[in-house]
């Protein structure tokens, strides 16, 4: 008998499993709207010009690869802080933000989860229903009991779907003090439905009144309305005098998925408190992977700290954002032209990379099996993978299963 005989086969990751199925599909017209990745107008994963320029400069003065500090590259952490809290904002000038470089947004979430578990082991974690599927697994693996707050309701907006805001508020209100509330800062994954600034004010008030611990997951800053606009939600939490966690991901905004560039920021009450929090975060890092990798962080730091590259990045990010919005409109128009009777214009009211299409599991399975159009069983489609070449086929396929 082997030492591993009792090891059970774990279920496949739903999204990555879908990817494997897509890769094995021999249909030449196949389209992958499953994974949350931005593809350009030619269906290619972009390598941003600002990234290429930074890498070119770096290669002209090649650096040895020593260990980074445990909390990462100082200029990177400073760049993250400025993006999240706003250049020159009070949390930064007062020194009360602890920011560490992390292995992607996932790494930022995990560092926060491990730190929180030490701080308040009996706290519950609330995630949105539905949420990015890794939220539940990540916080569960960190040792937390994970429950959800109501978020999406297909019956809202006359059956077109939307946020059950009353349900969300009620569930947050009912949570015990110290409960960790994981909130999507912008571009909600998987639904594409965000709440308005006025609704955020109400969430902030409930979080404050109930003594919840906000954990803002910001994986798509810049994909909603712009870097500043998407970051405005952070300022609302700051203005309320709250302390909170923010995870950052540059996977999408820099198209640096494989470099694993992210961060965790913790806003504390004072610099002295932030110093203590930082010292604990460093222990979490040190005992997990010691220190972060060099390349991705160096590229992002170079772009963020160089005005020319920074402007180029903002332009390229803006182009991605605008293209996604154009594809949403094309999808709505294309579905109508393909004969879909029902009003699909809700797709343009959604924001970010994803659309909850309202299609059933059966319809999604048919799309996949009969047409090679891959989305998740929940009806989620990545609109950032649509382009002029595949949109008509996608619309025609959807029209056939609706
Ligand atoms: N949070 C959300 C909501 C996401 O959608 C993602 C990426 N799909 C992440 C976190 C993780 O980002 P990263 O790939 O940088 O780990």
From TrEMBL:
InterPro entries in the record: Aminotransferase_I/II_large (IPR004839), Asp_trans (IPR000796), NHTrfase_class1_PyrdxlP-BS (IPR004838), PyrdxlP-dep_Trfase (IPR015424), PyrdxlP-dep_Trfase_major (IPR015421), PyrdxlP-dep_Trfase_small (IPR015422)
SUPFAM superfamilies: PLP-dependent transferases
Assigned GO CC terms: cytosol
Record-level Gene Ontology MF annotations: identical protein binding; L-tyrosine-2-oxoglutarate transaminase activity; pyridoxal phosphate binding
PROSITE patterns assigned: AA_TRANSFER_CLASS_1
Cofactor(s) named in the record: pyridoxal 5'-phosphate
Coiled-coil residue windows: none
UniProt keyword annotation of Transferase present: yes
A Pfam family: Aminotran_1_2
Subunit structure: Homodimer.
Family annotation (PANTHER family): AROMATIC-AMINO-ACID AMINOTRANSFERASE, ASPARTATE AMINOTRANSFERASE
Protein name (record): Aminotransferase
Lineage summary: Bacteria, Pseudomonadati, Pseudomonadota, Betaproteobacteria, Burkholderiales
């Amino acid at each position: 008998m082997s030492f591993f005989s009792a090891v059970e086969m774990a279920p496949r990751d739903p999204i990555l499993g879908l990817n494997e199925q897509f890769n094995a599909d021999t249909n030449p017209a196949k389209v992958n709207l499953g994974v949350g990745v931005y593809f350009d107008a030619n269906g290619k994963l972009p390598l941003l010009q600002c990234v290429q320029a930074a890498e070119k400069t770096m290669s002209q003065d090649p650096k040895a690869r020593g260990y980074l500090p445990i909390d990462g590259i100082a200029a990177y952490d400073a760049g993250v802080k400025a993006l999240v809290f706003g250049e020159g904002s009070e949390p930064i000038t007062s020194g009360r933000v602890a920011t560490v470089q992390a292995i992607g947004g996932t790494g930022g979430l995990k560092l926060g989860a491990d730190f929180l578990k030490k701080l308040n082991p009996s706290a519950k974690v609330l995630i949105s229903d539905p949420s990015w599927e890794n939220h539940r697994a990540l916080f569960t693996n960190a040792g937390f009991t994970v429950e959800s707050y109501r978020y999406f309701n297909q019956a809202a907006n006359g059956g077109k779907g939307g946020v059950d805001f009353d349900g969300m508020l009620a569930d947050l209100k009912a949570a015990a003090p110290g409960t960790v509330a994981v909130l999507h800062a912008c571009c909600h994954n998987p639904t594409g439905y965000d709440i308005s600034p006025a609704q955020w004010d109400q969430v902030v008030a409930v979080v404050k009144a109930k003594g919840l611990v906000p954990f803002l997951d910001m994986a798509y800053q810049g994909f909603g309305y712009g870097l500043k606009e998407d970051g405005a939600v952070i300022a609302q939490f700051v203005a309320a005098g709250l302390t909170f966690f923010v995870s950052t991901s540059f996977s999408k905004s820099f198209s640096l998925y494989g470099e694993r560039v992210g961060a965790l920021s913790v806003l504390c009450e004072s610099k002295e408190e932030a110093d203590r929090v930082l010292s604990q975060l460093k222990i979490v890092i040190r005992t997990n992977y010691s220190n972060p990798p060099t390349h991705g962080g160096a590229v992002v730091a170079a772009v963020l700290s160089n005005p020319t590259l920074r402007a180029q990045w903002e332009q390229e990010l803006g182009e991605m954002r605008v293209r996604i919005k154009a594809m949403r409109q094309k999808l709505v128009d294309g579905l109508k032209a393909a004969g879909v009777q029902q009003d699909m214009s809700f797709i343009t009211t959604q924001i970010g990379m994803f659309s909850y299409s309202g299609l059933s599991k059966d319809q999604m399975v048919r799309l996949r099996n009969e047409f090679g159009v891959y989305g998740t069983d929940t009806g989620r489609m990545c609109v950032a993978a649509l382009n002029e070449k595949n949109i008509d086929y996608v619309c025609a396929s959807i029209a056939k299963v609706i």
